[in-house]
Design a protein that fits this description.
alpha+beta, four-stranded antiparallel beta sheet
Length: 383
């Protein structure tokens, strides 16, 4: 029986720290804290970010779950200390900000203290998710699986359609050099101009990022119940990120406009056989998912992020006490954080895929997981 991976976070945006707990990781995985910190640093990058990124230098402090750098098989606990830990000193906004959780959260919990809502609803919480995903990523990489996100559109400025394919083996290098974590240097200049214009107009911008997962075996997830379908699990994980408004896999929404004869990916014999046996596809319009399961092709998903609702020009709202129309209080924010959202999206995909991987192959130790994976590989190649 496979292991069950679960995670949770705690903490407020300007509280003492963010806390994360990851349960279900097998024993014996060499866990690199430095790799986790690199992912946290990548989340803080991106042209158009706000002042908070200049204050914080995110690092994790492991509190439990490892010894001599190896996972023990129990819960892994960590914290990310906030330098800007001033929650008790910050003023309470007198009005709810449209686009945030402010009003609905106050109505839900009976508050007029908007800060009681916004501190937890803040995207600052995603730093802990990135740390969790960076741990899960290290298990996937032990089995040759790569998860890679890049920005494909920002404020209406799009990268070239074949940016991922054109980048080839230079994709990590190109992304690292980009202020927008994109793979198209020519589009970067146009994105920068768009962000500068939005900043001058005291506005904010949304965009799109794409996530690819390479090296996935077929059969992760299941068709046997709706809750087990990996399509639903990945979609739910990505839409749980603040400000995400849409997710598509493969051809996505365009599939609704495409005849079946030109959408479904033909199955063909492979000679010689591929890594997953003697069958393959001539295309990947399904994005690596069929029947709620991985197909053995690349997982391809794209996520739409709305413009950040904290903008300097403000949006019409009402004052809690007087009920009069006012402009929403501006809280320190970014012009855009689409590149950072891609890093968070990577983390959520890593967590979801690792959970499905351990359900399929998992044991209490990394050695047992490897035995299960290798047995499956032998069996599928014999089909």
């Amino acid at each position: 029986m496979g292991r069950t991976l679960s995670w949770s976070t705690a903490g407020e945006s300007h509280g003492k720290a963010l806390v994360g707990i990851l349960e279900g990781m097998p024993a014996g995985l060499e866990l690199s804290v430095e790799r986790v910190d690199l992912e946290l640093a990548r989340r803080q990058r991106g042209y158009g970010r706000g002042g908070r990124m200049k204050i914080e230098t995110d690092r994790i402090e492991l509190l439990g779950g490892t010894k001599t750098g190896l996972t023990l098989g129990g819960p892994i606990a960590f914290q990310i200390v906030n330098k800007d830990a001033v929650i008790e000193k910050l003023p309470v906004p007198t009005n709810p900000r449209p686009g945030h959780a402010d009003l609905a959260g106050c109505q839900k919990f009976g508050h007029r203290d908007v800060r009681a809502i916004l501190e937890r609803a803040s995207a600052r919480e995603t730093a802990a998710r990135v740390a969790l995903g960076a741990m899960a990523r290290q298990l996937l990489e032990a089995f040759g699986i790569e998860v890679f996100a890049h920005t494909i559109e920002l404020g209406g400025v799009a990268v070239r359609a074949d940016a991922f394919e054109a980048a080839g083996g230079r994709r990590s290098e190109l992304r690292d050099k980009s202020n927008f974590l994109s793979l198209d240097p020519e589009a970067d200049a146009r994105m920068r101009e768009r962000v500068d214009r939005a900043r001058d107009e005291r506005d904010s911008l949304g965009g799109l990022f794409e996530i690819r997962a390479l090296g996935l075996p077929p059969g992760l997830g299941s068709f046997t119940s709706g809750a087990e379908r990996l399509t639903a699990r990945l979609g739910g994980a990505l839409l749980s990120i603040p400000a995400m408004k849409g997710v598509e896999f493969g051809l996505g929404f365009e599939s609704a406009r495409t005849p079946g004869s030109r959408f479904h990916d033909p199955i063909v014999p492979l000679d010689p056989p591929g890594p997953w046996g003697r069958f393959g596809r001539t295309s990947n319009r399904a994005g690596g998912l069929e029947g709620g399961m991985t197909s053995g092709e690349e997982l391809v998903c794209r996520v739409a992020m709305k413009p950040i609702p904290s903008l300097k020009k403000g949006v019409p709202t009402v004052d809690f006490e007087s009920g009069e129309s006012v402009r929403a209080t501006y809280q320190r924010s970014d012009v855009t954080s689409v590149p950072a959202a891609g890093v968070v999206g990577e983390a959520m995909v890593c967590l979801t895929l690792t959970a499905a991987f351990l359900e399929k192959f998992g044991g209490d130790s990394l050695a047992e997981v490897r035995e299960g994976f290798e047995a499956f590989t032998r069996r599928i190649r014999a089909l």
